[in-house]
Amino acid sequence: MRPTGLSSRAGCFWVNPAGDRILSAQNDQRGGLCTIQWFGIDNDQVRHLNEVHVAKRVDTALSDTTYILRITPDGKRGFICQRTIGNGSDFCNVMIADLPSKRPAITGVIKQVGDGLESFAFHPNGNMAVATCLENTKNSLAVLDIASTPPRLLYHLDAAGMSQGIEFTPEGDRLFLGSCSNGRIEVHDVVGDFGLRKNPKLIKVGSGHNSLSIGSRFHHTRSLQQADPLQVSRCQRRARSETHTTSHISS
User: Fold this and answer.
1) What is the pTM for the complete model shown?
2) Does 172 reside within a domain?
3) Structure letter (DSSP) for residue 1
Protein backbone atom coordinates (compact mmCIF):
# COMPACT_ATOMS: atom_id res chain seq x y z
CA MET A 1 0.00 0.00 0.00
CA ARG A 2 1.32 3.42 -0.93
CA PRO A 3 1.61 6.03 1.87
CA THR A 4 -1.52 8.24 1.88
CA GLY A 5 -0.44 11.07 4.17
CA LEU A 6 -3.69 10.70 6.14
CA SER A 7 -3.37 11.45 9.87
CA SER A 8 -6.22 9.09 10.72
CA ARG A 9 -7.01 5.41 11.01
CA ALA A 10 -9.75 3.37 9.39
CA GLY A 11 -12.92 2.97 11.43
CA CYS A 12 -14.66 0.86 8.79
CA PHE A 13 -14.17 0.06 5.12
CA TRP A 14 -16.07 -1.68 2.33
CA VAL A 15 -14.82 -2.99 -1.03
CA ASN A 16 -17.06 -2.33 -4.05
CA PRO A 17 -18.51 -5.29 -6.03
CA ALA A 18 -16.01 -4.80 -8.87
CA GLY A 19 -13.15 -5.20 -6.39
CA ASP A 20 -11.27 -2.11 -7.54
CA ARG A 21 -12.37 0.55 -5.04
CA ILE A 22 -12.52 0.90 -1.23
CA LEU A 23 -14.78 3.29 0.70
CA SER A 24 -13.37 3.97 4.16
CA ALA A 25 -14.43 5.91 7.24
CA GLN A 26 -11.35 7.39 8.90
CA ASN A 27 -11.27 8.14 12.63
CA ASP A 28 -9.30 11.31 13.42
CA GLN A 29 -6.81 10.38 16.16
CA ARG A 30 -6.65 14.03 17.28
CA GLY A 31 -10.33 14.07 18.25
CA GLY A 32 -11.66 15.92 15.20
CA LEU A 33 -14.38 14.94 12.76
CA CYS A 34 -14.18 11.65 10.92
CA THR A 35 -13.57 11.71 7.18
CA ILE A 36 -14.69 9.48 4.32
CA GLN A 37 -11.95 8.41 1.92
CA TRP A 38 -11.97 6.76 -1.52
CA PHE A 39 -9.18 4.34 -2.50
CA GLY A 40 -8.32 2.52 -5.70
CA ILE A 41 -7.00 -1.03 -6.01
CA ASP A 42 -4.55 -1.57 -8.89
CA ASN A 43 -3.18 -5.12 -8.98
CA ASP A 44 -1.48 -5.48 -5.60
CA GLN A 45 -1.38 -1.74 -4.84
CA VAL A 46 -3.90 0.36 -2.88
CA ARG A 47 -3.74 4.10 -3.55
CA HIS A 48 -5.67 7.04 -2.14
CA LEU A 49 -7.88 8.76 -4.72
CA ASN A 50 -9.78 11.50 -2.90
CA GLU A 51 -11.67 12.53 0.20
CA VAL A 52 -15.45 12.17 -0.05
CA HIS A 53 -16.93 15.51 1.04
CA VAL A 54 -20.53 16.46 1.78
CA ALA A 55 -21.88 18.38 -1.23
CA LYS A 56 -22.79 22.00 -0.45
CA ARG A 57 -26.48 21.59 -1.16
CA VAL A 58 -26.88 18.60 1.20
CA ASP A 59 -28.14 19.35 4.73
CA THR A 60 -25.96 17.00 6.80
CA ALA A 61 -22.46 16.79 8.25
CA LEU A 62 -19.91 14.24 9.40
CA SER A 63 -19.39 13.69 13.14
CA ASP A 64 -16.56 12.42 15.33
CA THR A 65 -18.19 8.95 15.37
CA THR A 66 -18.98 8.51 11.67
CA TYR A 67 -17.62 4.96 11.71
CA ILE A 68 -19.85 2.54 9.82
CA LEU A 69 -20.57 2.42 6.09
CA ARG A 70 -21.48 0.00 3.32
CA ILE A 71 -21.61 -0.01 -0.48
CA THR A 72 -24.82 -1.10 -2.22
CA PRO A 73 -24.71 -4.39 -4.17
CA ASP A 74 -24.76 -2.50 -7.50
CA GLY A 75 -21.72 -0.46 -6.41
CA LYS A 76 -23.39 2.87 -7.16
CA ARG A 77 -23.97 4.25 -3.66
CA GLY A 78 -22.27 4.27 -0.29
CA PHE A 79 -24.52 4.39 2.79
CA ILE A 80 -22.84 6.04 5.78
CA CYS A 81 -23.93 6.17 9.44
CA GLN A 82 -23.62 9.80 10.58
CA ARG A 83 -23.14 8.80 14.23
CA THR A 84 -22.60 5.40 15.83
CA ILE A 85 -22.16 6.04 19.58
CA GLY A 86 -23.27 8.79 21.94
CA ASN A 87 -26.74 7.28 22.22
CA GLY A 88 -29.53 9.01 24.09
CA SER A 89 -28.83 12.41 22.54
CA ASP A 90 -30.69 12.84 19.25
CA PHE A 91 -31.58 11.21 15.95
CA CYS A 92 -28.87 11.10 13.31
CA ASN A 93 -28.85 10.75 9.53
CA VAL A 94 -27.96 8.22 6.89
CA MET A 95 -25.65 9.91 4.38
CA ILE A 96 -25.49 8.63 0.80
CA ALA A 97 -22.41 8.95 -1.40
CA ASP A 98 -22.60 8.92 -5.21
CA LEU A 99 -19.76 6.56 -6.13
CA PRO A 100 -19.72 6.31 -9.97
CA SER A 101 -18.79 9.99 -10.34
CA LYS A 102 -15.16 10.91 -11.02
CA ARG A 103 -14.80 12.38 -7.53
CA PRO A 104 -17.40 10.68 -5.27
CA ALA A 105 -19.26 12.97 -2.88
CA ILE A 106 -22.10 12.73 -0.37
CA THR A 107 -25.05 13.94 -2.42
CA GLY A 108 -28.04 12.53 -0.49
CA VAL A 109 -29.34 12.12 3.04
CA ILE A 110 -32.14 10.36 4.92
CA LYS A 111 -32.83 12.59 7.91
CA GLN A 112 -33.28 11.50 11.55
CA VAL A 113 -33.19 7.74 11.03
CA GLY A 114 -32.17 6.64 14.52
CA ASP A 115 -30.35 7.28 17.78
CA GLY A 116 -26.96 6.02 16.64
CA LEU A 117 -26.61 3.76 13.59
CA GLU A 118 -24.46 0.65 13.35
CA SER A 119 -24.91 -1.33 10.12
CA PHE A 120 -26.86 -1.80 6.89
CA ALA A 121 -28.39 -4.69 4.96
CA PHE A 122 -29.65 -4.39 1.38
CA HIS A 123 -32.49 -6.58 0.11
CA PRO A 124 -31.87 -8.32 -3.24
CA ASN A 125 -34.91 -6.54 -4.75
CA GLY A 126 -32.93 -3.28 -4.72
CA ASN A 127 -35.80 -1.42 -3.07
CA MET A 128 -35.41 -2.04 0.66
CA ALA A 129 -32.52 -1.45 3.04
CA VAL A 130 -32.43 -1.92 6.81
CA ALA A 131 -30.26 -0.11 9.36
CA THR A 132 -29.73 -0.98 13.02
CA CYS A 133 -30.41 1.83 15.50
CA LEU A 134 -28.44 1.75 18.77
CA GLU A 135 -30.57 3.07 21.60
CA ASN A 136 -29.43 3.09 25.23
CA THR A 137 -31.41 -0.04 26.18
CA LYS A 138 -33.24 -1.93 23.46
CA ASN A 139 -32.47 -1.40 19.79
CA SER A 140 -34.63 -0.90 16.74
CA LEU A 141 -34.49 -1.55 13.02
CA ALA A 142 -35.03 1.28 10.55
CA VAL A 143 -36.58 0.13 7.27
CA LEU A 144 -35.64 2.34 4.31
CA ASP A 145 -37.02 2.76 0.80
CA ILE A 146 -33.86 3.27 -1.28
CA ALA A 147 -35.65 3.05 -4.66
CA SER A 148 -37.61 6.27 -4.14
CA THR A 149 -36.26 9.69 -5.09
CA PRO A 150 -35.04 10.76 -2.63
CA PRO A 151 -34.61 7.64 -0.47
CA ARG A 152 -36.80 7.74 2.66
CA LEU A 153 -37.42 6.21 6.08
CA LEU A 154 -40.52 3.99 6.16
CA TYR A 155 -40.86 2.69 9.74
CA HIS A 156 -39.08 1.23 12.79
CA LEU A 157 -39.26 -2.22 14.38
CA ASP A 158 -38.27 -3.26 17.90
CA ALA A 159 -35.01 -5.25 18.21
CA ALA A 160 -32.87 -6.80 20.94
CA GLY A 161 -30.26 -4.68 22.72
CA MET A 162 -26.83 -4.17 21.11
CA SER A 163 -28.11 -5.50 17.78
CA GLN A 164 -25.41 -4.87 15.21
CA GLY A 165 -24.67 -7.25 12.34
CA ILE A 166 -27.58 -7.73 9.91
CA GLU A 167 -27.91 -9.50 6.58
CA PHE A 168 -30.58 -10.74 4.17
CA THR A 169 -30.49 -14.25 2.77
CA PRO A 170 -29.45 -14.39 -0.92
CA GLU A 171 -33.07 -15.24 -1.83
CA GLY A 172 -34.33 -12.27 0.18
CA ASP A 173 -36.87 -14.29 2.18
CA ARG A 174 -35.37 -13.58 5.61
CA LEU A 175 -33.37 -11.00 7.52
CA PHE A 176 -30.93 -12.16 10.22
CA LEU A 177 -30.04 -9.77 13.05
CA GLY A 178 -27.34 -10.46 15.66
CA SER A 179 -27.45 -9.19 19.24
CA CYS A 180 -24.10 -9.28 21.05
CA SER A 181 -25.60 -8.50 24.47
CA ASN A 182 -28.09 -11.39 24.17
CA GLY A 183 -25.80 -13.83 22.33
CA ARG A 184 -28.37 -14.63 19.68
CA ILE A 185 -29.41 -14.08 16.08
CA GLU A 186 -33.01 -12.98 15.55
CA VAL A 187 -34.91 -13.86 12.39
CA HIS A 188 -37.35 -11.68 10.44
CA ASP A 189 -39.46 -12.99 7.56
CA VAL A 190 -39.73 -10.67 4.55
CA VAL A 191 -43.28 -9.82 3.46
CA GLY A 192 -43.71 -8.04 0.12
CA ASP A 193 -41.30 -5.33 -1.01
CA PHE A 194 -40.91 -3.51 2.32
CA GLY A 195 -42.42 -5.69 5.04
CA LEU A 196 -40.63 -7.48 7.89
CA ARG A 197 -42.34 -9.85 10.33
CA LYS A 198 -40.42 -11.13 13.35
CA ASN A 199 -40.10 -14.91 13.48
CA PRO A 200 -40.67 -16.22 17.03
CA LYS A 201 -37.74 -18.61 16.67
CA LEU A 202 -34.12 -17.49 17.04
CA ILE A 203 -30.57 -18.87 16.86
CA LYS A 204 -28.46 -18.95 20.03
CA VAL A 205 -24.78 -18.31 19.30
CA GLY A 206 -23.29 -18.07 22.78
CA SER A 207 -21.43 -15.05 24.11
CA GLY A 208 -21.17 -12.01 21.88
CA HIS A 209 -22.00 -11.14 18.28
CA ASN A 210 -20.77 -8.23 16.21
CA SER A 211 -21.08 -8.79 12.46
CA LEU A 212 -22.83 -11.10 10.03
CA SER A 213 -22.37 -12.29 6.46
CA ILE A 214 -24.32 -14.89 4.48
CA GLY A 215 -22.97 -16.63 1.38
CA SER A 216 -24.87 -18.04 -1.60
CA ARG A 217 -26.83 -21.08 -0.50
CA PHE A 218 -25.72 -24.47 -1.88
CA HIS A 219 -23.42 -22.78 -4.41
CA HIS A 220 -20.65 -25.22 -3.50
CA THR A 221 -22.78 -28.21 -4.64
CA ARG A 222 -23.59 -26.71 -8.03
CA SER A 223 -19.99 -25.68 -8.69
CA LEU A 224 -18.63 -29.17 -8.00
CA GLN A 225 -20.59 -31.06 -10.64
CA GLN A 226 -17.35 -31.99 -12.42
CA ALA A 227 -15.33 -32.45 -9.23
CA ASP A 228 -14.25 -35.56 -7.36
CA PRO A 229 -17.36 -37.71 -6.57
CA LEU A 230 -16.34 -38.14 -2.93
CA GLN A 231 -16.08 -34.36 -2.48
CA VAL A 232 -19.47 -33.87 -4.15
CA SER A 233 -21.00 -36.43 -1.78
CA ARG A 234 -19.63 -34.53 1.22
CA CYS A 235 -21.09 -31.26 -0.06
CA GLN A 236 -24.47 -32.88 -0.68
CA ARG A 237 -24.57 -34.16 2.90
CA ARG A 238 -23.67 -30.68 4.13
CA ALA A 239 -26.43 -29.15 1.97
CA ARG A 240 -29.01 -31.57 3.40
CA SER A 241 -27.87 -30.60 6.90
CA GLU A 242 -28.28 -26.89 6.06
CA THR A 243 -31.76 -27.57 4.66
CA HIS A 244 -32.73 -29.41 7.86
CA THR A 245 -31.51 -26.45 9.97
CA THR A 246 -33.41 -23.93 7.81
CA SER A 247 -36.63 -25.94 8.10
CA HIS A 248 -36.48 -25.62 11.90
CA ILE A 249 -36.37 -21.83 11.58
CA SER A 250 -39.25 -21.57 9.11
CA SER A 251 -41.53 -24.15 10.72
Assistant:
1) 0.79
2) yes
3) -
